[in-house]
Amino acid sequence: MRVPIIAGNWKMYKTVGEAVNFVRELAGRVAGVSGVETVVCPPFTALAAVAAELSKQGAGIVSGAQNMYWENEGAYTGEIAPGMLKEVGCRYVILGHSERRRYFGETDAAVNKKVHAALAHDLIPIVCVGERLEERESGTTEDVVRGQVEGALAGLTARQAAGLVVAYEPVWAIGTGRTASATDAQQVNGFIRKLLVDLFGETAAGAVRIQYGGSVKPGNTAELMAQPDIDGALVGGAGLKADSFAGIITNAVGAGSGVGRL
Ligand code: 13P
Q1: Which of 107, 102, 167 is nearest to 133 (CA)?
Q2: Shortest-distance atom of ligand 1 to CA 173
Q3: 202, part of any domain
């Protein structure tokens, strides 16, 4: 059974003070909501304070980072090691977000090293994939997504793969207000599931949670989540306000999410 997972990617937003106030308010709004896993991914600077506030609130919300490097330590100015994220209470780490790929030159090979390093440190990777607008328009979406999935997950065992979260985020839907239709999103999420079956077998593939991301809002959550291969959302803009993020979380509960499909 796949428990839906709603994660807020805060990108480069919120000071430590703003972050702590946000999670306090969010915990109040979603207290008592069950059947969905909630993750917040603040900037590095706020991770420790957010984890401390979350454990004080006891609402079951967990934290994740937005990136990390694959080495344990060393002369890598500006980078953050997996063990450092564990120390400040992270359970998840977003890897290969399209903004990392676009602005910081991250490749599938780099994402693959990060995925292995995260798993070695007991961090759960949220592996992001998705096509650009010109790729969708030229009909290469599946080829692009296949390359990203195979590249990012190379060398994993079925057991390791089963614990992953994959986020399908079409680049043209990020921050644009242009959500993929539930049907289009399901088509790619279903394609990813089939790819995972080929790579890791039915059991492992059936355990992977595949999120959709790109202009997710409270109003479109239930329809997206009702699709058989959409097991959650990776939320940007609407995850920055406690009321809209709480709306997404509550609308995700019981929306279907393909539970028990495989
Ligand atoms: P938006 O929800 O703002 O479109 O961002 C999506 C995203 O990039 C989450 O990682």
Answers
A1: 102
A2: 4
A3: yes
